[in-house]
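pasting for the record
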Amino acid sequence: PPGFSFTVEGGRYFRNTGHGIMVRGASSGAVRRTVVSGNGLGGMHLETSGLDIADNNVTRHLNDGTAAGISVHAPGNRLHGNMFSNNDRGVALFANGNPVHGGSMHENGVAVFEDPDSGVSGNVAALVPIFAAENPFATLAH
């Protein structure tokens, strides 16, 4: 139903032909400490605002249209402490107002992609690497 709230925590979403996680119509929610890897249409596809996307391990996604490790299509979400590797695009932003804080983004084609055709720019508030010892999820990620 529209306006629902949800929490996804500690799951594993991999090798799906579609998106690993698709969120549409929620009023709030969180995706934390999940492993999202090798999905056909990208790791996470977010079409709602008010989400907290934290401490996830997102790997091995090829860019296909809007696909990415995490593809954000609505304003007002918070991405922090996520670990990205081997994605064509680590984070792809198609809406303004989505700060990306911290995160290990290694061996990605583009760490953060902002869609200039949609007038999207200036989302990245503080993109600084975090190291394995600083991320409580890192021990589960490898």
